[in-house]
Amino acid sequence: MNTETIQIYYHSKEIEKLTYIDGKSDWIDLRAAEDVVMKAGEFRMISLGVSLRLPDGYEAIVAPRSSTFRNFGIIQVNSIGVIDESYGKDSTDDLWMYPVVAMRDTEIHVNDRIAQFRILQHQPRIRFEEVGERKGQARGGFGSSGIQ
């Protein structure tokens, strides 16, 4: 497996350094770099305290941790975030932020794990080829794979 080196600037000395999630996953936790108090329905961009310079041809996918809603009652407003390699390429002022809305009154403290990310290579260029209708066996429609 190849190892890429990524330049990182920490805007806060209080947050823990980035690491893989407990050695169990190739996702990396992101932490709040500020104390936040939110009322239900309030929107906020929460500082994640880091700027990264991604290698050319790569992008970061930012998503909530599975426990974020349960623990803090916040939802990432854009479902996932995509940060391409042009963000942070030339300036550490390109601070990673986490856009959320509070579904209940909540408090988030510095170093609370609120999001996660992974880095992916850009997908290859795709050419779409239009075809005629296909009449094979359908799976049953979107969401039809069942619950087991």
Mean pLDDT: 91
**Separation of termini?**
33 Å
Given helix and strand content, the structural type is mainly beta
The 3D shape can be described as globular
The CATH architecture of the domain at 26-121 can be named as Distorted Sandwich
CATH class of the domain at 26-121: Mainly Beta
Low-confidence stretches: none
Oligomer: single chain
Number of helices: 1
CATH topology of the domain at 26-121: Deoxyuridine 5'-Triphosphate Nucleotidohydrolase, Chain A
* Largest sheet entry: 4 strands, antiparallel
Task: State the share of residues found in helices, binned by percent.
Answer: under 10%
Gyration radius (Cα, Å) is 19 Å
In what range is the share of β-strand residues?
35-45%
What is the CATH superfamily label of the domain at 26-121?
Answer: Deoxyuridine triphosphatase (dUTPase)
Taking strands numbered 1, 2, ... along the chain, how are they ordered across the largest sheet? Answer: 2-11-6-8
Q: How many distinct beta strands? A: 11
The secondary-structure element order is EEEEEEHEEEEE
Describe this structure in words.
- The chain starts with 6 loop residues before the first strand and ends in a 27-residue tail after the last strand.
- It is built from 1 helix and 11 strands.
- The longest helix has 5 residues, at 68-72.
- It is mainly β and 148 residues long.
- The strands form 4 sheets. It has a 4-stranded antiparallel beta sheet with strand order 2-11-6-8. A 3-stranded antiparallel beta sheet has the order 4-9-7.
- The chain is globular, with a radius of gyration of 19 Å.
- Helix content is 3%, strand content 35%.
- The protein has a domain at 26-121: Deoxyuridine triphosphatase (dUTPase) (Deoxyuridine 5'-Triphosphate Nucleotidohydrolase, Chain A, Distorted Sandwich), CATH 2.70.40.10.
- The model has no long low-confidence stretch (mean pLDDT 91).
